[in-house]
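Q: What changes when 2-deoxy-2-amino glucitol-6-phosphate is included in the input?
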Amino acid sequence: MCGIIGVCSVDRNVAPMISLGLRRLEYRGYDSVGVAIIDERNVQVWKAKGDVDSFLSRFKIDSIAGKTGLGHTRWATHGPPSDVNAHPHMDCRGKIAVVHNGVLRNFVTLRSILELRGHSIVSDTDTELIAHLIEDETQFSSSFFEAFARAVSRLEGSYAIAVVNEEEPHRIYFARMKSPLVIGVGGGFNAVASDIPAIVEYTRRIIVLNDGELGWITPGEVRVFRLTDEGLVEVDREELLSRIFFIEWSVEAASKHGYPYFMMKEIVEQPDSVRSTYEGNVSDPVLKAIASLLATSDNIIVTGAGTSYHAGLVFTYYLANIAGRHSIPLIASEYKILERAVSKRDVVVAISQSGETFDTLEAVRAFKGKGARVVGVTNVVGSALSREADITVYMRAGPEIGVAATKTFTSQIMLLTLISIYTAREAGLLGDSEVEAEIASLAEAPDIVRESIERSIEVINDRELGEHRSAYILGRGLGAHIAKEAALKIKEIAYVHAESYPAGESKHGPIALIDKEFPVYFAATRDSPEITGNIMEMAARGARVVVVKPEDYKLPVGVKEAKIVEMPPTKKDIKLDPYALTPYFQILAYKEAVARGYNPDKPRNLAKTVTVE
Ligand code: AGP
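A: The predicted holo structure follows.
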């Protein structure tokens, strides 16, 4: 996830507005920063690896003259953080500058076509291709806007883009598909930005662009068109005026989309982040290379810490049940229990959102030392894990600011499920048409996550756990792994001792703790109907039982025994159950923490990334 901003003004230099906007957008990405300014007839670009502070102190942007400009903060998805991969990107002649947030699914094809047509691509990014595509299309177009629109129609995937060209120094072109983009309607200027915080200090009059819309702004004009099968259709003025709304938020609140904490913002972002993981990886040849490794290795070790370890447990479930491959889940800090047994015929899948967790890196280095190949699964391009691993795949979930992992968990599950499906093909268990069907079914996940979030916010009380200081979170089969993640969330931000157990195991001792009204939650996934007996056992001993399950998963449990919480249906597809259940426990933990007066973004004793032993 990156942050983009563009401003064009009739009478003032825009650099200060752009640099302030970059500061407000930095939570969307901070690998590299860049600015393009047009002063009269040429486009100047400054860009560098590093965060906004380092960029602004190095280039002193605010003093640069120019009434039209673009800015970009990057969260790397294609190509590591570097000066050359920083946005804005330009065409061959240096006359067109582009900033982009999103992932182009057809970047490999576009790059081949453009290179065949003589364009020299200098970066590893998908974004640079947009500048060259526009340049290429100008040869066949009667206007720059026509070339821009033709280029946009050839993009596949997600994008929010802003473009300037030196032939039209007072105009910024924009387009939006599946990545957020808003227009700020100012006095004597107009702006486009990924997010409201970037411009809310200069204007509170906002138009939210819709997918498939594109157009341009000048200091006094906003023109929006829809890309339809019949061609470009302009949005009429009345509709555009009716879409202007006024922001009431404070600036600080706006960077959290109006939520009081990043954690809730990131929970609510999950439909987009899960979609970004899916879109950005589903056609990536790297997944197939990883699948081939997993299908042919002797042993597969799946390791990580905390939430990443829990995603690894879900991965071992899908590897076994989709790909027929046995794997060993291993808490990273416990790597020594396996070290002597690892050989060069084994593969280690190391999962780490930050890519910097000490325990996970130690495990990776130890197993590499024994000759094992390492697959890195991370959210950060250029992270230590991506440098240690033999092959790395990225979650593309965008930066996660809250200490508690939320959107990165569901993104990890999405990515690891895709890998499991491709491994099944490499292992000869699934044919191409079956793989296509399995892959297509995952496209439902973003809508299921959205529905689960909406239902959970609705049904969860602020003090679900009351004054209890303990709780059980139980599950069976896949549900046992969801339960582990649920318990971690409740522990780490609400400070309630929530313990997870395989539900079947709870009768072998843990049930002794149950007394009247003891909270027992069941994460009921559709692979384990025998969980019914465990629910009854807990209810019979007076526990306060809550069963969280997909609506289309019928369990013979009555309201006498438990409160049944119906999450969205998952079309009888076990691959989709995690997206239906996970948000419930994330939101339960969040509401409990806030109701108890804690800050869920900064839980006590914790750090976002644990880089110590
Ligand atoms: C999860 O909410 C915690 N923030 C923590 O357990 C985290 O998952 C763990 O430290 C691993 O971090 P990583 O994914 O960046 O390696």
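Observations recorded in class: The mean pLDDT is 93.
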